[in-house]
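note to self: dont lose this again. the chain is below, predicted strucutre after it. 391 aa total, dont forget to put it in the shared folder this time
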Amino acid sequence: MKLRMLFYCMCVCFCLPVVLFAQGVPGNVVVHEPATSRKYIGSPSLAILPNGDYVASHDFFGPESSEWQQAVTRIFISKDKGKKWKQVNTIHGAFWSSLFVHQGELYLLGPDRHHGTVMIRKSTNGGKTWTQPTNKENGVLLTGEFHGAPMPVVEYNGRLWRPMETAHGPVLQWGKRYGAMVMSADINADLLKSKSWQVSKSLPYDSTYLNGNFGGWLEGNFVVDREKRMWDVLRVDDKSSLDEKVAFVEISPDGKDMKFDQRSGFVDFSGGSKKFVIKYDETSDYYYSLVNSIPEKYRKEHPKRNPASFRNVLTLRRSKDMKQWEDVKVILEHEDVINHGFQYVDWLFEGGDILVLSRTAYFDGKANAHNNHDANFLTFHRIADFRSLSK
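---
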């Protein structure tokens, strides 16, 4: 079995039964859910509290979950820099949600279910208790059908920005139903009030893109380029090639309009058919991303496989302009493409390190995960001294 690890943490689990099964799982096990439960670990999100504690969240998806009715999200806290974790709350009615800290307070933002109403909650005690949205004055932000992932909520130019997607159609099919949009709010506004949030127009799916191979865009990143232009950089579904792409959708300066040029907007990006996060590091003057790349050996072994189904390799990459990227290091790798994956990672800079929270599919000592997509672990990792890494 081949496994690469570039972090110093040993595998630790808070629940004793998992210790017996998870000794080979890389990183620190936050929580384990056996594949037999038919509830799978989804939507990792990570935040650092003002006191230095870490907060992690995940939701459940799968046939035995409540993702289509009232999704369940669990909250965990670590007081020892990610070595051990303790569950402190279970939230009913939160899915695909982002944790973020703003002006010293912790928030959770996302739909209440699969393609649900967008809600926001606030915690003043590190995630132990949360406000409960019931109307547009206390956390119900957008009613209708919306899609997302735990994408970063970014502060820029006096506002908070959070990309999402409408899920209204016109074609009610995965990928094709999603329209790119962005929410934003003044940094001094009451974030629990619906009227504090502005929503851009939505750009829908277009079947003519990529010579008819465009399957949709989703899970966008808010990023700012060297010229101070704002972009929603989205995952792109294209099953016709293992050469993956992302879409650069420009956000107007006032945050109300979205614009896409199909001639220049699709950019080659290894890992672009799976969820990824792009962040700018001021110290090194690079943009960084952690992606599920497809190294050449796996391309040769599985030349006809859907590129979105390769999740067994997690690679740190960097770029000066977000257009030309270079590999820094393979962080995690397992030789099994079918049942192992390190995916949907949320991550943060902390000094010279990168903190990573992964939706991990891995053999638990008794059984494999259902597949590489349907994860059975939530794991925490630390990439130490990331700026000094090399291939």
